[in-house]
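If you are new to this repository, start here. Below is one unmodified record pulled from the training split, so you can see the exact layout before writing a loader.
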Amino acid sequence: MKTQLSGPATFGWLCIVAFLALPATPTAQAAASGSGTYVGSIGTEATSVTFNDVYAFRAEDSFDKTKQVTMVVLTDSPMDKPLMTAALRKERDRRAIATYLDKFAYVRLDIDQDGKVKALLLQTANSSYNLSNSGKSDVTVNTTTRVEGRFFIDGKNPRGETRKVDLRFATDLANVGPPVRN
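And here is the target side for that same chain:
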């Protein structure tokens, strides 16, 4: 006499085995998110940019080489993060990723060890602009492996033009080895 368990494998058992054999989804990819907008002007040109990808790594502070900054890059299109990480590991200089970013509109935030945004650079196809770091930042995580936070400006620039910036990011830092030159 055959019972359900002693007979040939049933479809249900095959489904269970197939499900258990599936690889787990890496949590680092699921935990990475970056978004934001910039609305304002660059020079005399009205500009609006939406950012939707994020990448972050450690670099030396440009003013004090004994300190580190977390560099967060937000772009309007997906980045080739493995190639960027390889370039940073090889060249040991933050400028090594410039060729991977030159086709994107992007913003780069330099965050000090206390979570304060020290510099903010906006790059578009036509120009680059150092935004005032006088906006408000709320960096909730800034560890050796992860950064999470928000930076925003809602006001007028020194010329009286309206500028709105709202950047949100949460990602693991790329493993580039020791902090790269800034």
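Two things worth knowing about this chain: The chain has four helices and ten strands. Residues 1-7, 9-30 have pLDDT under 50 and may be disordered.
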